[in-house]
């Protein structure tokens, strides 16, 4: 049973940290991020100098993705795989930015992958940037076409008399679409992706918390969204989902978008940011006057459910069992139907929602999965992104310069974000 400790330990916010500082940035460089050895030797590649350690790490990551694809081909008796969705291409290229535009689900290039090689099919407009800025040194072959030629022609030649699967819809390609199976290949993060998630989570959290500390009463929701988007884009984080909701709008809408509404008493910011293809989500609440007792109670309940879900997010744990425990908390505190009014959580990764977690979901959590639990109770929300491993979990968006609550689950204290009072 989860209980809230009698005292809520508050960490007083300090002055805002500078966006950049001289020397080593502790958010961007940590002891865990400095491996002493590489497990894969540098391979000859005329496209890049493998003395570049960052490229060497990406190359190793791409080789791991290729191994997973080969296992998938063997298991399904296929000859090749064609990837064309932006998230799929970002996954296989270890964070390559190949989208047609910021919001596009379709990549500017197609990947053709078989057991022995990987090729990029793109036009003469895109190929210079792709091979110089995104894929240099990663072992891809180029199949270039004129921009006015049909991309399907090259793919058809490569796929002739072969059994092929793709992540594209049947209205785009003649091959069978295998999105579920392909998405399963990327649910478990590689060591490089875990490192990137850690950096993304802390940078995203700093931006959200700094925005909450610095916007002023009377600004519009859209103004605050703009402040946060500015901070994120400066840090090379794309806000793929940005929600700012104020005052009574929080009570009416569980998944609101920002509007022209003025923020008078309180606001909650929820944002999903993407960098190097990976997505993390975080939520924080700020009040300009002491919140009333009912708001505090609901916020505490959301934090309790959140902490319960986090605590029981362990490798091999069935998702329905986590839901059962979360529902018991809602029921114990007289909100038995609250869980039916909003999404409780989802697996995240190269898509903001790789898999929606449901009460009867057949999915069992596994180590190296990224999960976002985001329970809401009326106008209150508690949301962070965690990564599972064999030892437990890591909150990659852990509150940094922010009030915290201590929530006890099975005698174990799990800090949850409190309410910033200004």
Please characterize this protein's 3D structure.
The chain has 422 residues and is of the alpha+beta class. It has two domains: 2-24 and 189-421, Alpha-Beta Complex (Creatine Amidinohydrolase); 53-184, Creatinase/prolidase N-terminal domain (Creatine Amidinohydrolase, Chain A, domain 1). It contains ten helices and 19 strands. It has a five-stranded mixed β-sheet. Strand 15 (384-389) and strand 16 (392-395) form a beta hairpin. The longest helix is centred in the first third of the chain and has 24 residues, at 53-76. It is globular. Mean pLDDT is 87; it is low at 1-22 and 24-49.
Measured between the Cα atoms of the first and last residue, the distance is 33 Å
Strand residue percentage? 15-25%
CATH hierarchy class name of the largest domain: Alpha Beta
Helicity level: 25-40%
* Largest sheet composition: 5 strands, mixed
Low-confidence stretches: 1-22, 24-49
Total E-strand runs: 19
Overall SS class: alpha+beta
Global morphology: globular
| Largest beta sheet: strand ordering | 5-4-3-2-6
List its traits:
single chain, 422 residues, alpha+beta, Creatine Amidinohydrolase, Creatine Amidinohydrolase, Chain A, domain 1, five-stranded mixed sheet, 19 strands, globular
Structural topology:
Layout: E1 2-4, H1 53-76, E2 80-85, H2 86-92, E3 106-114, E4 118-123, H3 127-134, E5 141-145, H4 151-158, E6 164-166, H5 179-184, H6 191-214, H7 221-234, E7 238-246, H8 249-252, E8 266-275, E9 278-287, H9 293-311, H10 319-332, E10 345-348, E11 355-356, E12 370-373, E13 376-377, E14 380-381, E15 384-389, E16 392-395, E17 404-409, E18 412-417, E19 419-421
Parallel strand pairs: 2-6, 4-5, 9-19
Antiparallel strand pairs: 1-17, 2-3, 3-4, 7-8, 8-9, 10-11, 10-12, 12-15, 13-14, 15-16, 17-18
């Amino acid at each position: 049973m989860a209980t809230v400790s009698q005292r809520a330990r508050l960490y007083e916010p300090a002055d805002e940290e500078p966006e950049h500082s001289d020397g080593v940035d502790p958010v961007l460089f940590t002891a865990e991020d400095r491996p002493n050895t590489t497990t894969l030797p540098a391979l000859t590649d005329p496209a890049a100098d493998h003395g570049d350690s960052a490229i060497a790490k990406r190359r190793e990551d791409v080789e791991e993705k290729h191994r997973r694809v080969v296992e998938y081909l063997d298991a399904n008796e296929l000859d090749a795989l064609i990837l064309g969705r932006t998230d799929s291409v970002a996954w296989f290229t270890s964070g390559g930015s190949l989208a047609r535009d910021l919001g596009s689900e379709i990549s500017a290039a197609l990947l053709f992958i078989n057991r022995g090689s990987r090729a990029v099919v793109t036009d003469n407009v895109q190929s210079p940037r792709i091979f110089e800025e995104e894929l240099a040194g990663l072992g891809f072959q180029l199949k270039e076409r004129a921009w006015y030629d049909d991309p399907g022609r090259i793919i058809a030649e490569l796929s002739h008399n072969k059994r092929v699967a793709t992540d594209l819809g049947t209205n785009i390609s003649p091959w069978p679409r295998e999105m579920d199976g392909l998405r399963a290949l990327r649910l478990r993060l590689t060591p490089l992706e875990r490192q990137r998630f850690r950096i993304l989570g802390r940078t995203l959290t700093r931006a959200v918390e700094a925005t909450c500390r610095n916007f002023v009463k009377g600004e519009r929701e859209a103004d605050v969204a703009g402040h946060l988007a500015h901070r994120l884009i400066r840090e090379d984080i794309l806000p793929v989902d940005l929600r700012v909701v104020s005052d009574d709008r929080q009570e009416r809408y569980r998944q609101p978008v920002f509007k022209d509404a003025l923020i008078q008493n309180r606001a909650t910011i929820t944002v999903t940011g993407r960098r190097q293809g990976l997505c993390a989500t975080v939520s924080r609440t700020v009040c300009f006057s002491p919140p009333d007792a009912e708001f505090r109670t609901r916020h505490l309940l959301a934090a309790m459910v959140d902490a319960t879900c986090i605590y029981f997010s362990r490798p091999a744990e069935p998702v329905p069992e986590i839901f059962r425990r979360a529902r018991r908390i809602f029921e114990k505190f007289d909100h038995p139907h609250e869980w039916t009014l909003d999404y409780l959580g989802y697996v995240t990764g190269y898509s903001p929602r790789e898999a929606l977690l449901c009460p009867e979901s057949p999915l069992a959590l596994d180590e190296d999965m990224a999960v976002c639990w985001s329970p809401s109770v009326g106008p209150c929300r508690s949301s962070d992104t965690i990564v599972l491993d064999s030892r437990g979990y890591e909150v990659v968006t852990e509150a940094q310069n922010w009030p915290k609550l201590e929530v006890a689950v099975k005698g174990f204290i799990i800090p949850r974000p409190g309410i910033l009072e200004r």
